[in-house]
Amino acid sequence: MSKKKGLSVEEKRTRMMEIFFETKDVFQLKDMEKIAPKEKGITAMSVKEILQSLVDDGMVDTDRIGTSNYFWAFPSKALHARKRKLEALETQLAESSQKKERLQQSIEKSKIGRQETAERAALTKELAALRQKKEHLTAEIERYKECDPDVVEEIRASQEEQLFLVHRLPLENQFLQ
Questions:
Q1: Most confident segment among 62-66, 100-104, 111-115, 136-140
Q2: What is the pLDDT of residue 2?
Q3: DSSP state of 56
Q4: Is 1 a residue whose pLDDT tops 50?
Q5: What is the pTM of this model?
Q6: CA-based diameter of the chain, in Å?
């Protein structure tokens, strides 16, 4: 006995859309709950959930007439939705291409004043040397930080506080007993 593998949500959505496109008809929920399991193998329990997700995504239209909800989707609507999406993506692509072109032009303008000259090379070398000297001096400051009077005073105050607490504890214990 082999178990039949269930359909994924995306497969169910695709099959549900096939029902609408093939029949080009309007359905009520109870009709879909009967048709979907027979024709497309979608379990009756999940028909309402799948149908609602298609409505939420705008792929299926719904309308309430009296006490009934009707659902429909026609191939022409899907085609128009894809065309609108394609147009939006083409517009976005064109805008991105223009932005890229503007940035390329900006880069070219920036490079104009940066030709490698002897003066520029000397300044670059001097800048590197100054940065290295700054790093060296910062490291030297870190080495001598232990001798800084403010740091030494903080250490001394901390030690005095600890000594005070150590000496105070035995006295407090005597009074508690």
A1: 100-104
A2: 43
A3: H
A4: no
A5: 0.46
A6: 95
Q: Please list the residues that pair with 72 across neighbouring strands.
A: 61
Helix (H, G, I), strand (E, B) or coil at 70: strand
E strands of the chain, at which residues? Answer: 27-28, 61-65, 68-72
Of 46, 50, 38, 48, nearest to 14 by C-alpha is 50
Interhelix angle for 29-40 vs 9-23, to 10°? 110
| 18 vs 22: CA distance, rounded Å | 6
Residue 147 in 3-state DSSP? helix
Q: What number is the average pLDDT over the span 36-49? A: 88
Q: Which residue has the higher pLDDT, 68 or 167?
A: 68
Q: How far is CA 53 from the centre of its chain?
A: 23
Residues constituting the chain: 177
148 against 12, higher pLDDT: 12
Cα atoms found within 13 Å of the Cα of residue 56, Cβ hemisphere only: 7
CA distances from 102 to 10, 40, 88, 159 (A): 41, 52, 21, 64
Compute the distance between CA of residue 173 and CA of residue 171 in angstroms, rounded to an integer.
5
Q: How far apart are CA 97 and CA 103, in angstroms?
A: 10
62: Cβ–Cβ under 8 A, 6 or more apart, which residues? Answer: 55, 69, 70, 71, 72
CA 163/CA 4 separation, integer angstroms: 77
